[in-house]
Amino acid sequence: MAQPSGESLLNAEFDALVEEQLELWKVPGLTIAIVQGSKTYSKAYGFAELPDKKMTTDALFSTCSTTKAFTAAATSMAIQDSKATASPFDWDTPMSTLISDDFVLPDDYYTKNVTIEDLLSHRSGMAPNMWVLACTEKDLTLRETVRSLRNLPLSEPLRTKYQYNNHGYIAVTYALEKLTGEPLAKMLKRRIWEPLGMKETYFSIQEAKANPDSAQKFVQGYGWHQTDECGSYNPEPVMSWDASTGAGSMVSNVLDYSHWIREQIHKTGPLKGHDSLTRPRILHFESGDIPPGPWHAYALGWFCDHYRDQPLYTHPGGWPGFGSLMGFLPNKDFGFAVMGNATSANIVAERLIVHLFDKILDLPNDPRYNKELAACFAKQREEWDRMVTPPSLDDMRAELYPSLPDPPLPLSLPMEKYAGTYTHKASCSVSLTVWEGRLTADSSGPNPLCLELIHVSGEFFIGKLWNKRGIYFKKFPVEFSVDSTGTAHKVGMLLEPALGEEKIWFERKK
């Protein structure tokens, strides 16, 4: 049977699926572009800004971590260029030989051996360290951010486990700019965006908003605040993290991304000769990933999978208010880019793309695979419901502290003695104040969150994070350390899942 054309794929059946998924996952609007051979098809759905600004196919989004594939491509080009110089480098070049004064990790072995390839494939041994986004100084320079790595934890032996880590891409960005003498933004524009005709792609939200025309096209991002009766969309503030750069700073639209996806499939333009970017570097085994399978892999800025035996390359992007997904089936000359103005848009994108894959591949029904796929979707829904419906205090207490004394032990100090500013050596800080008998803090990091500490027994608390629009984020154990002078001199929080029961400790600012 002949494959359906892209035009017929974005039909009334697809439109109905989009509308259903937007409502189910609380996404105000979404755009999609698909490439099939020499043709490109695109559509827009819903709203760019509530209550009534319609979404358009040229609407601009923060494309978040889809930036990583561009950074990896720029690195490949810089490596190729270096072959003609007196100081060539390659994927297996240790980072410390390129930026020796700045790239230092907590263990000398890692410092000396972590390579460019390790950082771009998330196998460096560094913990994900996503907690940093809530409390780091958001105006840190690239260099300052790289230098903070010496104070961020490692969690696995080198090259043994996939652990998604934005700081690796930040470090590579800094090294590229030092080695080439050119900002990554200029290199991408000169070597990739302009040759591909990506005329509405920018390296930061600030750059996109500086142009009146593009500022009008930049969508408003939203988060969903669930209440007992219904819920509401809350506007998300614009991201501000100067150092994100090559890890996730780009702004673009699905029309521009369609050029990028076609180049990934054919590699006849700026990517000619750069085939190694999609070669798998590390396996990972998350059971809920889509498409389902016993294993998944990561290359350089790309996830490597199979959908019903067809090679598939994808990468999502997410930040409060934005979600995106790009990818391609190289053997079918088919690719896609989906962008939406809520974090859950990348979940919607997965459902839409699975629908399109099934139409394109025209494969017989496979009940076993459908069951596995349904299980992945159900797990996503369970996680989503948990995020938008905060647990009760009793449930949190039972989960985090199942063996509390009865009655609980009192604090050793008055509550106000625990207030104050606590700092971490990685340029992070938390300022605690007392409010209605609880310790609270409003973070000022790139992803600003509200922290509430609820006393449970002795020096132990429940930590609860939510964003400033009231959307629940996570819960974790917290412990204060009181010294012999009666001073709460440090606070430990179980912020990094990769460290098991090891807490991240902040010391009282003197």
TrEMBL record:
Query: Residues in domain Peptidase S12 Pab87-related C-terminal?
Result: 407-508
Q: Which residue intervals define the domain Beta-lactamase-related in the entry?
A: 14-344
Q: Which Gene3D superfamilies match?
A: DD-peptidase/beta-lactamase superfamily (3.40.710.10)
The family assignment reads: Belongs to the peptidase S12 family.
Checking InterPro entries in the record gives: AmpC-like, Beta-lactam-related, Beta-lactam/transpept-like, Peptidase_S12_Pab87-rel_C
Q: Which Pfam families match?
A: Beta-lactamase (PF00144), DUF3471 (PF11954)
Query: Which organism does this record belong to?
Result: Penicillium cinerascens
Q: Give the protein's recorded name.
A: Beta-lactamase-related domain-containing protein
